[in-house]
Amino acid sequence: MSQTETAGTFHALHHAPTPLLLANAWDVGTARLMAGLGAAAIATTSAGVAWSHGYPDGDLLPIDLLLASVAAIARAVRVPLSVDIEGGYSDDLDTVEDNIARVIAAGAVGINIEDGTASPALLSAKIERARRAAARSGVGLFINARCDVYLKGLVPAERAVAETLARAAQYRAAGADGLFVPGLTEPAAIRDMVGTIGLPLNLLAWPGLPDLAALTALGVKRVSAGSGITQAVYGRAAVIARDFLRDGPGALPSEGVMPYAEINALMGTS
Length: 270
What we know:
By secondary structure, the chain is α/β, with parallel strands linked by helices. The protein has a single domain (3-227), classed as Phosphoenolpyruvate-binding domains (TIM Barrel, Alpha-Beta Barrel), CATH 3.20.20.60. The protein is built from eleven helices and eight strands. Strands 1-8-7-6-5-4-3-2 form an eight-stranded parallel β-sheet, sandwiched between helices.
């Protein structure tokens, strides 16, 4: 399947009867694992990718390292790949456009790009540049605009819905294909978003988020694990490594371990 066809598939997944579930990966191995478990698409977690290269999350990962990860994952899986590019790794619009063009060239058919604490006008301008980069590439890039009003508490709680809706309108006008609102969990607010934004709504797995059946009924179209799986893996690895370093080989677990041969066979797939 060509990249153009894969992009079309990714867009269609946002209009299915049930939400697209994205168990975010952070390297080739985890991307293959997710795909092998039946994931309809692969999305990266910016935090996990940054940590895998020894960098903190927060637009600090050198773009060449991101591109190397994207290219490697794109070669290793056949399902659509969406890449979390944080804020585009720059506030210079020419640089952002170039970065996005390079992410598409590396094999991505979707991106997440966030506003953070910056002006929504800046993200709108970045989305316009992303749309331009996609048009030049001929790939129907899915641009998921992440709105951090809830995640970062940018306005008082009573104004959060109105502020998010205002930003959503700007991002849609700029060319966004979806809206990601991490931290949003309240069913009535979710219903308001779905009925107003005119874009597929993406939510983050978060304490207090309704279950999948309720999210489906509310009209949510995408749910992301974010860095949650990565954090769980790091937490488990820290416990195992600490016990091993303290107690020796007898501390290594024998239960819940994925067999060596199974992992090795997974890495041999294409």
